[in-house]
Design a protein that fits this description.
The chain has 4 helices and 5 strands. By secondary structure, the protein is α+β, with helices and mostly antiparallel strands.
Protein backbone atom coordinates (compact mmCIF):
# COMPACT_ATOMS: atom_id res chain seq x y z
CA UNK A 1 0.00 0.00 0.00
CA UNK A 2 1.15 3.53 -0.80
CA UNK A 3 1.14 6.57 1.45
CA UNK A 4 -2.18 7.85 2.73
CA UNK A 5 -3.07 11.09 1.00
CA UNK A 6 -5.62 13.22 2.79
CA UNK A 7 -8.09 15.30 0.82
CA UNK A 8 -6.94 18.95 0.52
CA UNK A 9 -9.71 20.39 2.70
CA UNK A 10 -9.06 17.96 5.53
CA UNK A 11 -5.35 18.71 5.35
CA UNK A 12 -6.04 22.49 5.38
CA UNK A 13 -8.30 22.15 8.43
CA UNK A 14 -5.65 20.07 10.23
CA UNK A 15 -2.94 22.64 9.44
CA UNK A 16 -5.19 25.45 10.68
CA UNK A 17 -5.83 23.58 13.97
CA UNK A 18 -2.11 23.00 14.45
CA UNK A 19 -1.45 26.74 14.05
CA UNK A 20 -3.99 27.59 16.75
CA UNK A 21 -2.92 27.60 20.39
CA UNK A 22 -5.62 25.23 21.55
CA UNK A 23 -6.33 25.45 25.27
CA UNK A 24 -5.67 22.50 27.56
CA UNK A 25 -8.42 20.03 28.41
CA UNK A 26 -8.46 21.48 31.95
CA UNK A 27 -9.02 25.00 30.62
CA UNK A 28 -11.78 23.77 28.31
CA UNK A 29 -13.41 22.04 31.30
CA UNK A 30 -13.24 25.28 33.28
CA UNK A 31 -14.78 27.19 30.35
CA UNK A 32 -17.58 24.61 30.24
CA UNK A 33 -18.31 25.22 33.95
CA UNK A 34 -18.38 28.99 33.43
CA UNK A 35 -20.74 28.60 30.48
CA UNK A 36 -23.01 26.48 32.69
CA UNK A 37 -23.02 29.22 35.32
CA UNK A 38 -23.79 31.87 32.68
CA UNK A 39 -26.64 29.74 31.33
CA UNK A 40 -28.15 29.56 34.79
CA UNK A 41 -27.93 33.35 35.15
CA UNK A 42 -29.58 33.80 31.75
CA UNK A 43 -32.25 31.23 32.59
CA UNK A 44 -33.11 33.10 35.82
CA UNK A 45 -32.86 36.71 34.56
CA UNK A 46 -33.50 36.50 30.83
CA UNK A 47 -32.28 39.20 28.42
CA UNK A 48 -32.78 42.93 28.87
CA UNK A 49 -30.68 44.10 31.81
CA UNK A 50 -27.46 46.10 31.96
CA UNK A 51 -24.13 44.30 31.65
CA UNK A 52 -23.34 45.14 35.29
CA UNK A 53 -26.41 43.20 36.46
CA UNK A 54 -25.29 40.07 34.63
CA UNK A 55 -21.74 40.49 35.91
CA UNK A 56 -22.90 40.62 39.53
CA UNK A 57 -25.31 37.71 39.02
CA UNK A 58 -22.59 35.63 37.36
CA UNK A 59 -20.28 36.37 40.29
CA UNK A 60 -22.96 35.07 42.66
CA UNK A 61 -23.36 31.92 40.56
CA UNK A 62 -19.60 31.33 40.30
CA UNK A 63 -19.28 31.71 44.08
CA UNK A 64 -22.09 29.21 44.65
CA UNK A 65 -20.34 26.75 42.33
CA UNK A 66 -16.98 27.18 44.08
CA UNK A 67 -15.25 28.66 41.02
CA UNK A 68 -12.54 31.17 41.93
CA UNK A 69 -12.62 34.48 40.09
CA UNK A 70 -11.51 38.09 40.18
CA UNK A 71 -13.78 40.89 39.02
CA UNK A 72 -12.76 43.99 37.01
CA UNK A 73 -9.10 42.97 36.86
CA UNK A 74 -6.72 45.70 35.73
CA UNK A 75 -3.95 44.59 33.36
CA UNK A 76 -0.94 46.56 32.18
CA UNK A 77 -0.43 47.27 28.50
CA UNK A 78 3.14 47.40 27.20
CA UNK A 79 4.41 48.84 23.96
CA UNK A 80 7.98 48.02 22.94
CA UNK A 81 8.80 47.11 26.51
CA UNK A 82 7.27 50.22 28.05
CA UNK A 83 4.10 50.50 30.09
CA UNK A 84 1.67 52.68 28.14
CA UNK A 85 -1.65 52.10 29.86
CA UNK A 86 -4.08 49.72 31.45
CA UNK A 87 -7.10 47.70 30.42
CA UNK A 88 -9.77 46.06 32.53
CA UNK A 89 -11.03 42.48 32.22
CA UNK A 90 -14.63 41.83 33.31
CA UNK A 91 -13.74 38.53 34.98
CA UNK A 92 -10.59 36.47 35.35
CA UNK A 93 -11.50 32.91 36.27
CA UNK A 94 -8.98 30.91 38.29
CA UNK A 95 -6.20 33.16 36.91
CA UNK A 96 -6.38 31.44 33.51
CA UNK A 97 -9.66 32.21 31.73
CA UNK A 98 -10.81 35.66 30.64
CA UNK A 99 -14.56 36.27 30.52
CA UNK A 100 -15.90 39.36 28.79
CA UNK A 101 -19.59 40.09 29.20
CA UNK A 102 -21.76 41.97 26.72
CA UNK A 103 -25.37 43.08 26.34
CA UNK A 104 -25.39 43.91 22.63
CA UNK A 105 -27.56 43.09 19.63
CA UNK A 106 -24.81 41.01 18.02
CA UNK A 107 -21.06 40.53 18.16
CA UNK A 108 -19.01 42.77 15.87
CA UNK A 109 -15.47 42.07 14.63
CA UNK A 110 -14.11 44.56 17.20
CA UNK A 111 -15.25 42.31 20.06
CA UNK A 112 -13.11 39.44 18.77
CA UNK A 113 -10.22 41.84 18.11
CA UNK A 114 -10.46 43.16 21.67
CA UNK A 115 -10.45 39.60 23.02
CA UNK A 116 -7.33 38.79 20.99
CA UNK A 117 -5.64 41.92 22.31
CA UNK A 118 -6.43 40.76 25.87
CA UNK A 119 -4.92 37.35 25.11
CA UNK A 120 -1.75 38.95 23.79
CA UNK A 121 -1.49 41.31 26.76
CA UNK A 122 -2.01 38.58 29.36
CA UNK A 123 -0.39 35.67 27.48
CA UNK A 124 -3.42 33.55 28.35
CA UNK A 125 -5.02 31.07 25.94
CA UNK A 126 -8.78 31.59 26.01
CA UNK A 127 -11.42 34.29 26.21
CA UNK A 128 -15.12 33.59 26.54
CA UNK A 129 -17.31 36.34 25.11
CA UNK A 130 -20.78 36.05 26.62
CA UNK A 131 -23.62 38.18 25.28
CA UNK A 132 -26.71 38.14 27.49
CA UNK A 133 -28.91 40.14 25.06
CA UNK A 134 -30.11 37.04 23.21
CA UNK A 135 -33.20 34.85 23.57
CA UNK A 136 -31.07 31.69 24.03
CA UNK A 137 -27.63 32.09 25.60
CA UNK A 138 -26.08 29.50 23.28
CA UNK A 139 -26.45 32.13 20.53
CA UNK A 140 -24.47 34.63 22.64
CA UNK A 141 -21.35 32.55 23.27
CA UNK A 142 -18.06 33.02 21.47
CA UNK A 143 -14.79 31.26 22.27
CA UNK A 144 -11.66 33.18 21.21
CA UNK A 145 -8.13 31.77 21.06
CA UNK A 146 -4.92 33.10 19.54
CA UNK A 147 -3.68 31.97 16.17
CA UNK A 148 -0.17 32.51 14.86
CA UNK A 149 -1.12 35.68 12.99
CA UNK A 150 1.35 38.49 13.22
CA UNK A 151 0.28 41.44 15.39
CA UNK A 152 -2.21 43.84 13.84
CA UNK A 153 -3.03 41.85 10.73
CA UNK A 154 -6.73 41.83 9.85
CA UNK A 155 -8.66 39.06 11.56
Amino acid sequence: QGPVIEPPRRRERQEKREKMREPSKELDALAYKVIGAAMEVHRQLGPGFLESVYEEALCVELTERGIAFEQQVEIGIDYKGRAVGKARLDLLIEKELIVELKTIDRFAPIHKAQAISYLRATRLDLVLLINFKVPVLKEGLKRVILSERKPWQPY
